[in-house]
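Suppose a colleague, Dr. K., hands you the sequence of a protein chain of 392 amino acids and asks what its three-dimensional shape might be. Before reaching for any lab equipment, you can write down a predicted structure in token form. Begin with the sequence itself:
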Amino acid sequence: MTRRSRLAVAALCLLWLGLGLANVARGLDAVGPDYWRWAFAHHSYSDLLTLYSPRYLGGAHPLPYLADRIEYPPLLGLALWLPSFAPGGPAGYLLVSALFLAACLAVTLRALALLPGASPWWLAATPALGYFAFLNWDLLPMALLALAMLALERGRTGRSGALAALGVAAKLFPAALVPAALGGLASGRRAPALRWMVIAAGLLVAINLPLALFAFDGWSWFFRYNAARGAENSLWHALGGPSGRLLDLASLGPVALAGLFAGWCAWTAGRRGGDAARAARLGTAFTLVTWIALNKVWSPQYALYGFLAGALVAAPGWLFAALTAVSIADYHLEFEVRARDWSSWFVETLVKPSELLRTGLWLVLAAWIAAALWREATATAPPPRAGAPGVQ
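The predicted structure, expressed as tokens, is then:
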């Protein structure tokens, strides 16, 4: 990217982030036990303030997992807890969290700018940033995933594995990198794939094992909480589909198949002498979009992962426009239906059709990426370029 392009990206992001922060900040005076009711009615909801209220309002700082059950993995629990020490009550907490998340977005966009063939504009230009950047802490795992992709592109195998593990320790979605990365690495010598896997697994154990040993109830709440959830705001909610283990199979089965396809394509591309690093990016994006589209639970900010995937593969602009429009509509519909206490008319007439449309559009993006991935895996390899970067 040129200097002018970088400045344009920065200015656009600052605009979206400023608007998003101003919207969330409208709820500072409503922080308390009933904040969520006010936020739904005013379309100004943020998990940052919702989770602040029962934990840190009044100056408390309960230790994550040891004295406080948190429905997120450890690294996100830490990101939630540390800003509670900022002065200024909920306003200080929101400001520090917002600055941190804005820095994560900057890191993500910088990593995308350094990835050949990526399109940072797919993430930077969407107004969805204004809606979702401060809805949750997802920009943190997104930054770690983007950095892991960049390290993989440059042959920094150990660094990539470590960054991927940190991403998974923040939220599970960065695990979408695992099959494509291992497939691409295993297409050459086995040692890099083994190094990536050992470092990633070792770091995950190092982060999680102490908590599992000394605060098992708090640490395991993430798994128990998510296992007990049903179909929420998702395709499966719209279809009135399966429940329990059948729902888990219906939602996770396609993700597993997407991961296998991604790993095979990355391995095949490498074996044929093609661009295994590009195949790994395409495979990661394909798995990620399949995951968010078919997951049993949908939260509106998951759209940011989809825009990250579109940026990784430079997907077409018409998909960007369609997904931006449906993501913004999704935000307002999902919070309006809660403000209306799940009015049956509103659910059946507007919410469920929108869930079907949203899922369909994300699956169109997944199909576009799958086609590009297949072409990468089956293309005749060009002559190798001396010093070309890639998965090693």
